Amino acid sequence: MQIDVKGRNTPVTDELREHVEKRFRKVGKQVSEFARLDVELYEERNPAIADNQVAAATLALKGVTLRAQDRARDLRHAINLCEEELSRQVKRHREKRRGRRPGSETIRTAGEPEGFGEGTAIA
User: Fold this and answer.
1) Which of 18, 28, 76, 81 could form a disulfide with 1 if both were Cys (CB 3.0 to 4.6 A apart)?
2) CATH fold for the domain made of 2-98
3) What is the DSSP string of 73-86?
């Protein structure tokens, strides 16, 4: 997975870039190696907003784009929250693609109704 970290009105240090790569490594194991992750870090300039550090992640997969955005007082915490949200989305997307979601039972996999088994004649 290719990770691109951008900062808007915020400098992106090597330490911050390593933290993003470390946190999103788990997501990278669940998606294709051709997936692209764009992480944008910025600070809200409004003094009325207490949680002014924002992390926004966009994961481009084949045929679908997943997005997550979280705010916190600390940029590292915002990154952690964003990773958790994106991880949930990736897990749900994979289960949906593989047909393993609970309650997604199809007609073919559903059991036959009573009285319509082998040896039962229909008049």
Assistant:
1) 28
2) Double Stranded RNA Binding Domain (3.30.160)
3) SSHHHHHHHHHHHH
